[in-house]
């Protein structure tokens, strides 16, 4: 068993921003803190994003603290661009991410330390930053008849790009950014597309300025303060009415249908008997926070979420969640990483936590 001051779980935007601030406080990677990640290479979840999600299509990606991402070719896959950038970042700031190391459980240990049990051994730590994102927990709702479908079903997490759907009839489920992007990409290749969403999509006119961003974050923050499961920041901001969406609406690609009532062997069916034949059902139904490793600490509230004060778990001041709920964006993760480290410094110095 190794002893450290801080364990950071996850080396995406949230984990690397946190590690950067730990370094800035004078702590050293490997000696005072470790960053553990179970993915094969640098890039966080970006390394798994589909090839047609080019860097030019990623809007609002904020650079990590202390190092800009400059000169990237917008036509290259964001998975490549961002993985290379994260790799450079880790080396520049000597963050020494240990991978692949899967964190399986965090539990109470002796002497007020937390025990972090992993595929690579056990660490005993005084503080923990959990920065595990959501990519590892795709949300896939169940529908009656789902197991009878003879075609292919897949989630965004396995979306291979539009060419794979050439000549096929595709039903896309989900009203978020991924669902609309999949539809707009697939439509020129597919024999037919159908878009279904549980709630009517909300399109947002005008620029998404800082004030709108703050209002959206405040809504998610309030849920987390109440111990409710966070909704993604994007889910409360609505879909931006950009040129691509406008064209999709005009062309009928984004002609939204209500959620079907059942899946049949050949497609989907609504209560009024209407049917759509399908070869593929693509579930763009989002993700949930990947916090299973924290289960032994019993941080969840009856409402199902982890109640936070700032980034600190209300039930355990040694545990911080960065990139969770209101900080689940690249800019949010940067800010939350800094705030978590500021708070942990106080904890390590034996001071009371600052008011959130
Ligand atoms: C398609 C898509 C496009 C997006 N575009 C934007 C955008 O343009 N701008 C923006 O601000 N945000 C965007 N987001 C959201 C953005 O990706 C996230 O807010 C941010 O990048 C997430 O960073 P993260 O570090 O929290 O998570 P991740 O990047 O998911 O990193 C989490 C890391 O934790 C590791 N991990 C997870 N569980 C464990 C475990 N048990 N043990 C060890 N390691 C573990 C994973 O391997 C991963 O490397 C997008 C999201 C999606 C899905």
Would you kindly provide a written description of the structure presented here, covering whatever features stand out?
Strands 1, 2, 3, 4, 5, 16, 17 and 18 form an eight-stranded mixed beta sheet that branches. The chain has helices at residues 13-24, 78-92, 177-186, 210-225, 233-237, 243-251, 330-348; strands at residues 2-9, 33-36, 103-108, 114-118, 121-130, 152-155, 169-173, 192-197, 203-204, 239-240, 256-258, 262-264, 267-269, 275-277, 280-283, 308-309, 312-313, 316-321. The two termini are 33 Å apart. The model has no long low-confidence stretch (mean pLDDT 93). It is α/β, with parallel strands linked by helices and 356 residues long. The chain binds flavin-adenine dinucleotide (FAD).
Kindly summarize this structure in a few lines.
The chain has 356 residues and is an alpha/beta fold. It contains seven helices and 18 strands. It binds flavin-adenine dinucleotide.
């Amino acid at each position: 068993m190794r002893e450290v001051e801080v364990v950071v779980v996850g080396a995406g935007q949230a984990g690397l921003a946190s590690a950067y601030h730990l370094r800035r406080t004078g702590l050293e990677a490997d000696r005072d803190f470790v960053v553990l990640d179970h993915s094969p290479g640098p890039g966080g979840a970006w390394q798994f994003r589909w090839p047609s999600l080019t860097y030019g299509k990623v809007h609002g990606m904020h650079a990590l603290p202390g190092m800009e991402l400059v000169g990237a070719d917008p036509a290259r896959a964001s998975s490549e661009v961002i993985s290379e950038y994260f790799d450079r970042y880790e080396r520049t700031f000597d963050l020494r991410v240990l991978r692949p190391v899967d964190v399986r459980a965090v539990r109470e240990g002796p002497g007020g330390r937390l025990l972090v049990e992993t595929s690579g051994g056990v660490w005993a730590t005084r503080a923990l930053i959990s920065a595990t994102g959501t990519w590892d927990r795709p949300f896939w709702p169940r529908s009656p008849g789902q197991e009878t479908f003879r075609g292919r079903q897949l989630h965004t997490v396995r979306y291979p790009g539009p060419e794979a759907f050439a000549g096929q009839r595709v039903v896309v489920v989900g009203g978020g950014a991924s669902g609309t992007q999949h539809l707009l990409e697939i439509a020129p290749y597919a024999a037919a597309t159908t878009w279904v969403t549980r709630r009517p999509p909300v399109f947002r006119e005008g620029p998404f300025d800082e004030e709108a961003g703050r209002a959206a974050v405040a809504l998610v923050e309030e849920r987390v303060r109440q111990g409710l499961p966070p909704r993604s920041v994007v889910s409360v901001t609505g879909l931006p009415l950009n040129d691509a969406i406008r064209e999709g609406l005009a062309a009928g690609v984004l002609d939204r249908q209500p959620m079907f009532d059942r899946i049949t062997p050949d497609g989907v069916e609504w209560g009024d008997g209407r049917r759509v034949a399908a070869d593929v059902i693509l579930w763009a139904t989002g993700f949930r926070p990947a916090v299973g490793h924290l289960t032994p600490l019993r941080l969840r509230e009856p409402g199902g979420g982890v109640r936070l004060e700032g980034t600190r778990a209300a039930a355990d001041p040694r545990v911080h969640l960065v990139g969770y709920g209101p900080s689940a964006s690249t800019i949010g993760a940067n800010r939350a990483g800094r705030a978590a480290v500021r708070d942990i410094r106080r904890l390590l110095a034996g001071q009371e936590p600052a008011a959130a």
